[in-house]
């Protein structure tokens, strides 16, 4: 069996930028540090008036196909993960295929297409579907195109507003991949939760504080299940650990939990004991509350240790660089975190080939999944072409009034002029609605 994994990746950011530490914080009368330090975000990417989940997904896929020299005949499957879909029947993948067929001679009539939904974890589930399809031998030499695309908008005034974002990531899943190899081992943590949901509504209903705890609980379960399959997981086994990143402050919490859990019983816990003692064990306590208080105190001290700070700086911080500038892209978020780490390693001239990544995906509702990946020999060539830094630098910076007007443009309940702030060039754009309420698109030169 040949190896299977991500062969190539491309990202498309929404063209607009809302500065959180200045524009947003000023308007809300908040301390900018709440965003820069507390949530860990500087800015959000937002979609211009002619952008949506289809244009961003199609543009990312088009760029990927052009770069890799791929034609529709090479693709046997198009899976789109999104939680921003506008149709309960027709999948976004058909719209994206339709866009791509405008610019290629061939077509995708023989490609299986679908749309995956499970909040933010649907992007990882789509990768799994592609992996399983290839592993089952049903690909017949063809690759799968996986696109995670979202306009992660909240109701204005919702606490989640500062974590908004919009963008797409396209990933080519194939045999003998150049970027990372996926593996069969996976850990899941899944439970019926109502922390974040969109019951037939555009903007989410969110219990924000609870969603943070549900994320941590499910991720711990997933890590424990993975550990049970792979004998043990040591914090230094992995070069980077990209997590689903609704905002970097969330990753700060899950990383500390993961570190505490995986150093337990290792030589690292012994070394840390000189400074902060051994971790409290539940069996040593008469009741759960006392144990939890002791664990919280231990973690407060652990966070300040040199060992933890060095581990976090090397293996977690580089995964957050893009997220700080673009916000939450829901289904794409954990995959953007992977790219962020690989771009960081590339610019530092590191050789990661053969190193492993531990990837923690999450979707509200709720499910976490953890798996390991191996970086492949061709990773540098596969990552160096990703132009996300240029896209981030070239976004149009919105004033607060302009932000409100573009939020209204994308609000299904409002009928306002579709005033755009940028001029599209060599890309797919939204072009209005057809007679059956379908969305229409065209490629502009
Ligand atoms: P909030 O009320 O805006 O913020 O809500 P806060 O008051 O909780 O402050 C946030 C952090 O900033 C805190 O840090 C504050 O201490 C700190 P923490 O104590 O938690 O470490 N802070 C400051 N730091 C420095 N200087 C200051 C300052 N002020 C405050 N001056 C909340 C935050 C997460 C609830 C909100 O943003 C929200 O509702 N977000 C949406 C839900 C969300 O993202 N949940 C995350 C887990 S669920 C998930 O990831 C799934 C999701 O992606 C959806 C899906 O799966 O589809 C959302």
Structure keywords:
single chain; 445 residues; alpha+beta; Peroxisomal Thiolase, Chain A, domain 1; 9-stranded mixed beta sheet; 3-stranded mixed beta sheet; globular; binds 3-hydroxy-3-methylglutaryl-coenzyme A
Overall radius of gyration: 22 Å
Structural class: alpha+beta
Task: Supply the number of helical segments.
Answer: 15
Summed over residues and divided by their number, the pLDDT gives a mean of: 97
Identify the CATH class.
Alpha Beta
Low-confidence stretches: none
Separation, N- and C-terminal Cα atoms: 43 Å
CATH architecture: 3-Layer(aba) Sandwich
Shape: globular
Give the CATH topology: Peroxisomal Thiolase, Chain A, domain 1
Helix content: 25-40%
Task: Summarize the structure in words.
- The chain has 445 residues and is an alpha+beta fold.
- The protein has a single domain, classed as 3-Layer(aba) Sandwich (Peroxisomal Thiolase, Chain A, domain 1).
- It contains 15 helices and 16 strands.
- Strands 1, 4, 5, 6, 7, 8, 9, 12 and 13 form a 9-stranded mixed sheet that branches.
- Strand 12 and strand 13 form a beta hairpin.
- The longest helix is centred in the middle third of the chain and has 22 residues.
- 3-hydroxy-3-methylglutaryl-coenzyme A binds next to helix 2, helix 6, helix 7 and strand 12.
In terms of topology, how is this protein built?
Elements: E1 4-13, E2 16-19, H1 20-28, H2 32-39, E3 43-46, H3 53-68, E4 75-81, H4 92-103, E5 112-116, H5 122-135, E6 143-152, E7 165-175, E8 180-181, E9 186-190, E10 196-197, E11 205-206, H6 208-229, H7 248-263, H8 267-276, H9 288-303, H10 306-315, H11 321-326, H12 333-347, E12 356-363, E13 367-375, H13 379-384, H14 388-393, E14 396-397, H15 400-409, E15 427-433, E16 439-444
Parallel strand pairs: 2-14, 4-5, 4-6
Antiparallel strand pairs: 1-7, 1-8, 2-3, 6-7, 8-13, 9-13, 10-11, 12-13, 15-16
The chain binds 3-hydroxy-3-methylglutaryl-coenzyme A.
């Amino acid at each position: 069996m040949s190896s299977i994994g991500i062969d190539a990746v491309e990202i498309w950011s929404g063209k607009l930028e809302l500065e959180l530490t200045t524009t947003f914080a000023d308007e809300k009368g908040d301390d900018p540090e709440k965003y820069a330090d507390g949530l860990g975000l500087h800015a959000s990417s937002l979609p211009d008036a002619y952008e949506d989940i289809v244009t961003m997904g199609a543009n990312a896929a088009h760029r990927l196909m052009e770069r890799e020299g791929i034609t529709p005949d090479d693709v046997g499957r198009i899976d789109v993960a999104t939680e921003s879909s506008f149709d309960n029947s027709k999948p976004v993948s058909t719209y994206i295929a339709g866009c791509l067929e405008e610019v290629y001679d061939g077509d995708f009539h023989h490609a299986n297409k679908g749309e995956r939904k499970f909040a933010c974890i649907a992007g990882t589930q789509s990768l799994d579907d592609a992996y399983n399809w290839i592993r089952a031998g049903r690909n017949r030499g063809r690759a799968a195109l996986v696109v995670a695309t979202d306009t992660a908008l909240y109701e204005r005034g919702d606490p989640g507003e500062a974590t908004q974002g919009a963008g797409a990531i396209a990933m080519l899943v194939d045999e003998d991949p150049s970027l990372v190899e996926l593996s069969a081992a996976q850990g899941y943590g899944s439970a019926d939760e109502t922390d974040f949901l969109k019951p037939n509504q555009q903007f989410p209903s969110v219990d924000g504080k609870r969603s943070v705890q549900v994320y941590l609980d499910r991720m711990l379960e997933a890590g424990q299940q993975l550990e049970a399959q792979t004998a043990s997981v040591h914090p230094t086994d992995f070069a980077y650990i990209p997590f689903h990143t609704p905002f970097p402050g969330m990753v700060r919490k899950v990383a500390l939990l993961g570190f505490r859990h995986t150093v337990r019983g290792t030589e690292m816990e012994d070394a840390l004991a000189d400074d902060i003692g051994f971790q409290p064990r539940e069996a040593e306590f008469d009741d759960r509350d006392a144990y939890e208080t002791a664990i919280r105190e231990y973690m407060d001290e652990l966070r300040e240790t040199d060992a933890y700070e060095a581990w976090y700086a090397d293996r977690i911080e580089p995964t957050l660089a893009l997220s700080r500038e673009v916000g939450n892209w829901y289904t794409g978020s954990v995959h953007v975190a992977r790219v962020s780490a690989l771009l960081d390693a590339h610019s530092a001239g590191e050789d990661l080939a053969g190193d492993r990544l531990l990837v923690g995906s999450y979707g509200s509702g709720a499910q976490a999944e953890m798996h390991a990946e191996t970086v492949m020999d061709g990773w540098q060539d596969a990552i160096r072409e990703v132009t996300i830094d240029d896209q981030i630098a070239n976004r149009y910076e919105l004033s607060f009034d302009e932000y409100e007007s573009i939020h209204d443009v994308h609000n299904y309940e409002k009928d306002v002029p579709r005033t755009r702030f940028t001029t599209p060039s060599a890309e797919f754009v939204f072009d209005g609605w057809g007679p059956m309420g379908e969305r229409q698109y065209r490629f502009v030169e």
